[in-house]
Amino acid sequence: MNELKKLLIQAKIDFSTAVSISSLENAKSYYLGKNGKLTQYIKNIKNISINERKRYGEIINSIKINIKKELNIHRDILKKKQLKVSLKTNKIDITLPGRGKNKGGLHPIMRTLERIEKIFYSIGFDITDGPEIETDFNNFTALNSPKNHPARSMHDTFYIKNRYVSNNKPLLRTHTSPMQIRYSKINKPPIKVITSGRVYRIDSDSTHSPMFHQIEGLWIDKNISFSDLKGVYLNFIRVFFESDNIQIRFRPSYFPFTEPSAEIDIVFQDGPLKGNWLEISGAGQVNPKVLCNMNLDPEKYIGFAFGSGLERLTMLRYGINDLRLFYKGNINFLKQFT
Ligand code: PHE
Q1: For residue 246, what is the DSSP state?
Q2: What's in the GO CC field (predicted)?
């Protein structure tokens, strides 16, 4: 039994003189390991006479508990020491700039949007946006496309099942024009607003995507004419492309919510696209029926609206030929714009 007590004393000495956690762990296995000193005593139990065995077992157990206790005490002490040292030597300079390698940037479409909003804001337009899930009413009916109107088929879209609303189904908006209705219902003329966002149609090729972005302009007051539209749009295009060598033209067209309606085409008078007329926007004078749906008196108010695709404007500005590049998430492509 004395041997066991000596073993405990020796273990205490070894543990307390260990200079590092790893030397402490070595000392631990010297006593408690598979072939450790104490383990050998435990294995020896079978050679002890039955009478002595119980007492022998008790003593070994209490030695084992004590050795473990000592071990834990010194493990704690060493860990604390280690922490102190590392706090002293590994000082963290919190005033250093971050080490982030991959700086994000604005998506080219969002760059275009910010540019356009700035341009219109500078000439007094309010800036808003609206929900992508619209009602059938705002997207079509209030914009003078009643149910079964053939113009609806130009805007085939994604409908959302809703068994509670049977005659005003939610859908993914096909254009930003429903914001004309929303905005005019809460704001009184003069109305001068730019709205933008994602729109959805069943279309997919190198120049069409089922989701794309539009920017919509609306100006309603007592004396607004097509020449205001022309002035505003030409100014926008020239500032946007940073060139005065651009002309625009209005080509007769049809939209249910404008009358008369037009497509706006632009032509560059220099550069790589010189001489090609490019369709850039739908536009027109707000249809009197739409003014009524905005709760405005068509005898008193008149205005214009236009809707342009942000993808197209971005492609022209940067010389991009495939619209799908915008949505592939290819870092090499996107990096060029940051
Ligand atoms: N909403 C039309 C479209 O998406 C564009 C447009 C807007 C036309 C405003 C006229 C006036 O095609």
Answers
A1: E
A2: cytoplasm
Beta bridge partners of 33: none
User: Can you spell out the DSSP letters for 265-304?
Assistant: EEEESSSTTTT--EEEEEEEEEPHHHHHHTT--TTT-EEE
Q: What is the largest CA-CA distance in the chain?
A: 117
Query: 170-172 and 126-129: which strand pairing?
Result: unpaired
**∠ Cα 317 252 264 (to 5°):** 15
CA distances, 327 to each of 107, 111, 158 (Å): 10, 15, 19
- Tens digit of each residue's pLDDT (9 = 90 or more) over 75-123: 999 999 999 988 888 888 888 888 777 778 899 999 999 999 999 999 9
Task: Evaluate the omega torsion of the peptide bond into residue 131 and state whether it is cis, within 30 degrees of 0.
Answer: no
pTM equals: 0.70
User: How far apart (Å, rounded) are the C-alpha atoms in residues 68 and 61?
Assistant: 11
User: For residue 184, which amino acid is it?
Assistant: S
Reduced to 3 states (helix: H, G, I; strand: E, B; else coil), residue 194 is strand
**pLDDT at position 302, please?**
97
CB of 307 closer than 6 angstroms to any ligand 1 atom? yes
DSSP β-bridge partners for residue 255: 258
Q: Is the CB of 303 under 6 A from ligand 1?
A: no
Closest Cα to atom 12 of ligand 1? 282
Atom 10 in ligand 1: residue holding the nearest Cα: 283
The CB of 258 under 6 Å from ligand 1? The reply is yes
Q: Ligand 1 centre from 308 Cα, in Å?
A: 7
User: What's the CA-to-centroid distance between 306 and ligand 1, angstroms?
Assistant: 6
CB atoms within 10 A of CB 81: 13
